[in-house]
Structures are given as structure tokens and as C-alpha cells.
Amino acid sequence: MGKTLLNVEDLVVAFSMYRGDTLKKENLEVIHSLSLDVKEGEILAVVGSSGSGKSILASAVLDLLPKNAIVSGRITYDGKPLSMKTTPDLYGKEISFIPQSVDYLDPLMKVGKQVQGVKGSKARQEELFKKYRLGKDTEKKYPFQLSGGMARRVLISGAVMGNPKLIIADEPTPGLDLELAMETLKHFRTLADQGTGILMITHDIDLALNVADRIAVFYAGTIVEIASTQDFLSGRDALRHQYTKALYDALPQNGFKPIPGAQPYAGSLPSGCLFADRCPYRDDACAGEQPEREVRGGKVRCAHAT
Ligand code: SF4
User: Which of 222, 274, 281 most suits a substitution to test ligand 1, by most atoms within 8 Å of the C-beta?
Assistant: First the structure.
């Protein structure tokens, strides 16, 4: 694995919002002290349940957060601070984005032209459409003429058009059948093997385990564990956090055991371990803040992980 491309350190994101039906504003913190890094040639999958705020991480990295967002922490690319102000040229070139919503496509432009971009090559677009099994006539279509799966493949083609060094993929596979989802992920793997770093945000841990090098487990607005994919394949004892172990037990191949309880709401988080309400092993040591620490080559926020 090569040098670090993306580094996110102690990221905090809050939204300034009106409280209930009053005119008073409050800051709702949705990302708490989140740290991760993506190296050249690796796929880091950020895995967590749908609706838990993972996409906010992608928006923060891409500097796409709305105006009422209050952000602190450090986001660097290749060692330099990353933002629309300081490094606008990186976005869409060295760093590309596969969004969760197909609404990112321009409804008034034929998709072939959209994928080619301003200076893109038609030959490369045709090559990518072929690779993603988009028929020859697709390039002349408008987004409304595509199925959800086709639109997603067009988005993926657009993201890899310029041979980016870092790809941020936010739920890249919904709308694709299993075969095509696996094929897309295999293509990500090929890109990574050629040196691209990929941050893949997904709710589908099973799919992620097929291609990712490391898995960052997202829970209630932060990363509670970063483990190698090999740790997941080795079994629950190789994992460190109780939520990760519960996720492992909930996989179909491990008996589909549900995780009791629900993730805490951003506005009413517990003061200590965010998973404490659902953890059978909680004790007094879990009541304080759980800083990230290294355990067996991975990272974890749990007082009792060894
Ligand atoms: S810190 Fe405590 S409550 Fe949280 S996962 Fe670890 S053992 Fe469970």
C-alpha cells in the first residue's frame, strides 16, 4: 500500500438549527471526532446502517456541506489542506465523487456528453459505457430515459473518466442487481490495484467485505473501529468493538442475529460510549469519553477492547 492520500482527523460537524417550533437556534452535532485515512491503492469501506449520517462525511470531504454546517478538524489530501477555497482544481480531477443520488445528473444534457465533460474523450466514454454494459444508444439518452441502475452506471463512468487518484463513493451499488454490483466493486478493486485510493461509504457490509482492504465501522456519528477485512474473515474474536461484533453476528452467514435497541439520536447522545445502551458488557469504565486507540493493529473506541 502506498502513501496516505486522504487524512481526516478529529472531524466534528454540527448543524445550526431551530429548536422545535421556537425561534431559538441550537447546534446539533452529527459527526463527532471522526478520524480515518485512505492510502494509495486501498479501498477503505465506511460501513454503518442507513440514515446514520455516513453521507455527511462524504459531503465534508468534498466541501459540499450546507451553509448552516459548523465544521472543525483537519481534512488533508496528499498532506495539504483540502477545500473548495484552497484546492478547487482537485475536485472532479484527482478527486472524484460517485454520489448516492442519481439526481446529480443534469436532466437537460445527454449522458454521453455529461460523462465526457468539457475536455473528455469520446473514445474513453465509449470504453467505459461498454465496460459497464451500457448499450451504444445510451450516450444519446437523457437521464429521465434511463433506469435507476443505468443512471448509476453512468455516474460511475463519469467518476472514473479522468483516472482520478482518489474516489469518494457514497453508496455506489443500490439499484444494481447483485451481479452488476459485484462487477462494479471488482472494477473498484482493479482501480485500487492500479494505485487509486477509494473511500467507499456503504450500508452493505457483506458487499464491502468482498473488495475492501479495511472496514471503518460507523456508529452514531463516529468511527468506533477500523479493522482489516481479514479480521472480519477471521471471526468475531479478531474484532475489537462490541458493535462490530454485533454487526458480525447479524450477517446472514453468521445466523442473522439482530442487534437489540437502536442507535441514539444525534440530539440525545450518551456522554460516554455511544454504544453503551446496547452493550451487555458496559460498566463504569464505559461512562467516560472513549478516545480512539490502537489495539492489535486496528483502531477502536472501547474501554475494554484488548
Ligand atoms: S466501551 Fe463499554 S459499553 Fe462501549 S462497547 Fe466497550 S464494553 Fe461496551
Answer: 281
Report domain extents, the chain: 4-17+26-94+165-271, 106-163
Domain formed by 4-17+26-94+165-271, architecture: 3-Layer(aba) Sandwich (3.40)
The predicted-structure confidence for 104-156, as pLDDT tens digits, reads as follows 999 999 999 999 987 778 999 999 999 989 999 999 999 999 988 899 899 99
Residues with CB under 6 A from ligand 1: 241-242, 273, 275-276, 279, 281-282, 286, 290, 302-304
Residue 236 in this model has a pLDDT that exceeds 80? yes
Per-residue pLDDT, 285 = 96
| Ordered DSSP codes for the chain | ---EEEEEEEEEEEEEEE-TTSS-EEEEEEEEEEEEEEETT-EEEEE--TTSSHHHHHHHHTT---TTEEEEEEEEETTEE--TTT-GGGBTTTEEEE-S-GGGS-TTS-HHHHHHTTT--HHHHHHHHHHTT--GGGGG--GGGS-HHHHHHHHHHHHHTT--SEEEEES--TTS-HHHHHHHHHHHHHHHHTT-EEEEEES-HHHHHHH-SEEEEEETTEEEEEEEHHHHHH-GGG--SHHHHHHHHTSGGGT-PPPPS-PPPGGG--SS-TTGGG-TT--GGGSS----EEETTEEE--TT--
pLDDT band for position 15 (cuts 50, 70, 90): very high
Kindly report the average pLDDT of the chain as a whole number.
92
From the CA of 224, give the closest atom in ligand 1.
5
